[in-house]
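Researcher: Batch entry, complex prediction.
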Amino acid sequence: MRSLLVWILCSTPLSAADVSFRQEVMAVLSRGGCNQGACHGNLNGKGGFKLSLRGEDSTFDRNAILKESLGRRVDIQHPAESLLLRKATGQTPHEGGPRFSADSSEYRLLSEWIRQGCPSDPDHLPKLLKLQVSPTEKVLISPANKVQLDIKGTFSDGSTRDLAHLVTFEPTVVGLVSISPTGEVVRQNDGELTVLVRYLEQMVPVQLVFAPARAEYVKRLVSLDHPIDRLVFPPLETLRLSPSPLASDQVFVRRAYLDATGCLPTADEARGFVTDSRPDKRAKLIDRLLAKPEFADYWAQKWSDLLRNEEKALDSKGVRLFYQWIRDSIAADRPLNEFAAEIVRARGNTYENPPANLYRSLREPYGRAESIAQVFLGIRLQCAKCHNHPFDQWTQTDYHEFAAIFSKLDYRIVENNRRDMLDKHEFIGAQIVFTARDGILKHPVSGKALSPRLLGETKQLPPQSDSLDEIAEWLSRPENPFFAKVQANRVWYHLMGRGLVDPIDDFRSSNPATNEPLLKELARSFQQSGFKLKSLVRLIMTSRAYQLSASPAETNADDETRFSRAIIRPLQAEQMLDAISRVTGVSPRFESYPKGTRAGQLAAPPLTKRGKKGLEAERFLKVFGQPERLLTCECERPSDTGLVQTFQLLSGEMINGMLTQPGNRLGKLLESKQSDAEIVEELYWSALSRGPTSTELSRLSEFVAKSSDRRAALEDVVWGLINSKEFQLRR
Amino acid sequence: MLDRRALLQVGSAGLLGLSLPQMLRANPHPKARAKAVILLYQFGGPGQHETFDMKPNAPAEIRGSFKPIQTRVPGLQVCEMLPRVAEIAQHLTVVRTIQHTMGNHNSAAYYSLTGMAPSSDDQRLRDSLELFPAYGSIVDRFAPAPKGTPTFVSYPYTIRDGSISPGQHASFLGKTHNPFFFTQDPSRSDFRLPELSLPASISAERMESRKEVLQLIDSQSDLLEKSAVAQGIDESYQKAVSMLTSKEFKKAFDLSQEPKEVRDRYGRTTYGQGCLLARRLVEAGAKFVNVYFSESIGGDRGGWDTHGFNDKPQDPILKDWLLPITNDTFPTLIQDLEERGLLKDTLVVWMGEFGRSPRINKLAGRDHWPKCYPAVMAGGGVKGGYIYGASDKIGAYPAHGQCRPEDISATFFHLLGINPETEIRDKLNRPFPISRGQVIQEVIA
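Model: Structure tokens for the complex:
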């Protein structure tokens, strides 16, 4: 009898007036920002009140509201006295400030739910099938300054409801727009942003651009023959961004050398290019650069950075073998999907099978899963380790099932002759990476053993399969949804200075590409070429978009995302040292590398032994941001300038030594009996890939002529060249 | 357009239009009580039983062989080897009950140098840009010193246990916020910093002509005018040049300007002269100075890690090295600051990464003990002659007043006038408050 009664109570249909906890009350809490990480969604809650982060856990949240704090949070008899409402409206002091007013629909929903006795949701509550928002992208040119979002949800009972009053709006950039409670987005400042519209587990990103009128806009006809230009330039017209003109030959030759090979052109190479009068000389130069051994050096360095090629874990033999393997693959223009697949499935003795070194560095399954996702799939999965990803589709289960792919990898340490007995990161000697028979990961919440599953796939991997072979095969399939786009975007980033998706390893619906059609085209072309790096580099470098000047035109000074002008970047550590070495004619020394090795040819950052300072050149590279290769992220190479860096160039002992060495380039030039003007000319071409302007030439010749010490004066000129912005920047 | 990078990227706007950054502004920065912090970092982990939490009534294997002496502060006894510390106890707040769970030097050092708990207790915790920045870097980010002086100075070691202990630099905040760091020994007569001096062959006049050459080249392009990157480099140049030429800051490093008697009072050791230098740096305007007591965790002339390994029982090391040098330096610094009227707005903090085990082990040493250990503070807005919290009878666990390293960091930031809830973002753009702890209000004067 009693169970019958319970059954009847539970199955009472939710009347139209019944407020749903999950679909309305929690939606209101999300809307108020109550369950965010900075507020009650915090690990420790706030003010003794903790909600699940962004409403992940409705049972937890209902308990928190009902049962904790001696039930003071809700007062069913007098809903208006409930602490929940008094705090949210600021009637009782609230550290988070008032979140909504007493006459709002939010307040009415909460108080009605309390009045109804704080019911939990019945099992048959219709589920949200799809959240629909329109428009999902729009460009507004001033004076147009607002857009109304239409927000609807379809439910499992076939109904469609207006949800504008229940969803949460999250602008990815603050200060650009205001959003009304019903979804009207109004410009406060010009700029681009994504507004995430969230409801329950669903999220729709809306891409908006609020552009100024740009009255000075000048339309320039550019040829649209190149497939990249066809997609870069027309949107600039919509945004009224006047593209910058083509860069001069002097600027282009320096840029192309640095971007393709990491090195400056020699004075002769630069002069030869500038004086060449053939119309297709830029394309010809690009072909020459792609064939240079320095191309392979430079791109192998980039991949070595990402693949944790560092000496402490791999030892000095290991880094050289791994580097050589990477460099050979690039020199041979091996398809990048094969390259990736080989790394992902690699096992065995790391001396015999160098790609297995990635797993020698990444010694536990979570780190492996996170790194593989970041490097090859462009996904930052880390957030989902502890809770569902707040800005992406990935759940905690997705994370842990993906990590399970790597759970059985193990090591046999054949020998370890570490020099520093206290340093447990150090391994010197052979290791064998292999798949062990067991190694099961458990779900952190349910405690259940996990079977491996690929990201975005619904089925688990077959139980008897080799999970690493499976992921390798999946990754290298031409139709893999992530790989081609992510790698094409990476190459675009290296050449253009910013990813179409940025940061480049953070692909998610809430971080859309600034030019999706272009990204698709790059990915398509990359895939069609058989995942060849060189053809992708050629494609990008031959476009007009790549060859634009960095100097702003009429209306594009503030453009940072649409590639209407070239992006200026500081030279990287290795580029900088090699460039200085080129100009001064003095080679840096690196411990246990042959004399004459360029910084851009190092297999790995030289290790500084305990108690040693390291050689000058090695310290220089560290100061200038050579990554230690401990993160599988491009972000490990910083682009910011620090004071120590400045001191190195301004007053550093190494630079001073290179400038004053008797037999350096200056010494040779002085012996060559050239005039001051000729020497200055030569120094300019080798440092800046241009000749001196007439002002520079006359003033510097005069400066040298008047000086009592000719060599010292010329050293001062070289010092000035090295310290100039033009030298230190790629533009 | 607004500069995208200049805009904070945050979450939901509230319904009353009160967004999170506005809320943080609604919780404004507190009034600064301290202008500067000097952190005397006691690497290795000083034992509470031999310093600031003596247990004379505990059994012999717990109380150890040193006797307590009474200070002027009721309830505060210190080790008999620290008589000069006893004399200045009226300036001290002793927090007796810091607790955490990191038993390894590197993970505990990282925790105590950043206020951020590492994800695991592992000696192999590797320093990388994923990890949290040092306190001083955060101060440099939110309350920098005026131009010509670095906000954050640290010396004279990179501390390490096997591998480098994390928490000594700016990490993901960016190189701009790294400490001005050096390893030269301030007790040497030839102590000087190459960064602050031009190469011998470069006279001031020659530097001037170099600057003219540079200006000539820079004026040929529109980079300085149009590129923020170029402007950033130039700013850094201006700052470096102003430091090279700033008499004030350079003077701080010239310890020969101190009277001999003052230098002697601090002790002619690396650490002693380092403490003196800290005072001079604070006078020159630095805001956060990390003085590392030792480079290594232990040994004859190293840090506080006195396990009794290698036939080295703790007592002789404590008696001949650790306690005497502490007795010579710490009170000297406090007194010196006090005499110069600097103590009221300079917070001095003496602490390590953990304490030591209540029971003396078979090797006549004590082992790591993060479950209850002290930090000592003075000046800069904290109470004088105050004890916060109490440990149990054997100094093993907090009896009351338990706190964590993040509470200490929240207290630093609060005293420096920085809201501990201020948000920073890591390399993956994840938001973190600069401290996850609570300000220990009781210690504030």
